[in-house]
Amino acid sequence: MPRIAYTPADLEQPADLVDAIRSRRGGKLLNLDRMLLHSPAFARGWNGFLGAVRSELDLDPLLRELAICAVALLNHAQYEFAHHAPEFLAAGGTAMQLAALADVPAAVDDAVLFSPAQRVTLAIAYEMTRRVKVNEAYFAAARAALPPQQVVELVGVIATYNMVSRFLVALGVDIETTLAKDPEDGGGITPEALAALRPAGSA
After folding, report:
1. If you ran DSSP here, which 8-state letter would residue 76 be given?
2. What angle do CA 162, 136, 68 make, to 5 degrees?
3. Max Cα separation, the chain?
4. Domain region containing 30
5. Residue 164 falls within a domain, yes or no?
6. Which residues form the Carboxymuconolactone decarboxylase-like domain (predicted)?
7. How confident is the model at residue 26 (pLDDT cuts 50, 70, 90)?
8. CATH of the domain at 93
9. What gap in Å lies between CA 21 and CA 26, rounded to an integer?
10. pLDDT in tens, 36-66
11. Tell me: the pLDDT tens digits for 106-125?
12. 103-131: string of b/e by CB count within 10 Å (b at 16+)?
């Protein structure tokens, strides 16, 4: 349940900002947007920044979405996971990989399910999210697997979605009901699937 009521789904003002957000979202406002729009200045900065992170980086979309899904589960941000698990699958990830994210440290060591680049992505996501400081060995592996620009982008994505997840969890942003459709319809992640993918030890 949201801790502050959402702004209206049919909000029209400020028009340029609302139109820009609707354009990026395919025509509608998500619950996250409706929360952000309590502060137009904050929503404007968020929309521009997140738009760039989602669509203007050289980082492999599969690694980007893997990092986001790991951060979401580590921070118990079910909203974030519900939106990004389908993006991970669309980028070439598998359902078995998503299931393995219930235990990120174990996934880091899983050379069967994950490639070296995917494993170092998970390692850095875990270290940044749980410990903030990252072991130099993981950075060495990242530098061996990715060019400098993509290493910077990977770190930036992980930092960004830690911000997003903390915003979502602190304000209690709900998953939209349209994301809880029957998986056979080809859309969404069911609440049952989300519950099954909570990290080990989560409440």
Report:
1. T
2. 25
3. 50
4. 15-55
5. yes
6. 40-109
7. confident
8. 1.20.1290.10
9. 9
10. 999 999 999 999 999 999 999 999 999 999 9
11. 999 999 999 999 999 999 99
12. ebeebbebeeebeebbbbbbbbbbbbbee
